[in-house]
Design brief:
Elements (H helix, E strand, L loop, with lengths): L1 H22 L6 H15 L8 H9 L6 H9 L1 H39 L1
Helix pairs in contact: 1-2, 1-3
């Protein structure tokens, strides 16, 4: 019965995210609305981690099969992807390196400020 309650909570928040996606004229996916709603509820204490922990662990444990359709889609359109693959790969590598560097520098600055003050 506990897992049913947990799944109902998660699916309810997902459904509210879908409604928000239809109501708000922003280019944000419904899943993102649901994630922010879940984050807000957890941070505010309205929803406790224990309230969704079992279902969350179930979803995490069974996440791998969720990637099968995406992988098949990539294989299906491999010829088209090859045409733009190298530029996308370079963009991803360079932007990831930039994010790493900027994050590291900001973390260093914050640590230096903490030790000074």
């Amino acid at each position: 019965m506990k897992i049913t309650k947990e799944l109902t909570i998660i699916l309810g928040i997902t459904a509210i995210g879908e409604v928000l996606n239809q109501l708000l004229p922003l280019p944000i996916p419904a899943g993102v609305y649901g994630l922010f709603l879940m984050l807000g509820l957890l941070c505010s204490g309205i929803l406790r981690t224990e309230d969704v922990e079992g279902a969350g662990k179930f979803f995490l444990d069974n996440m791998t099969p969720m990637f099968i359709p995406v992988s098949v889609g990539i294989i299906r359109y491999l010829d088209q992807i090859k045409a733009v693959g190298l530029p996308y790969l370079l963009i991803n590598v360079i932007s990831t390196m930039i994010v790493f560097i900027v994050t590291g520098k900001i973390a260093q600055l914050m640590m230096e400020r903490r030790t000074e003050g």
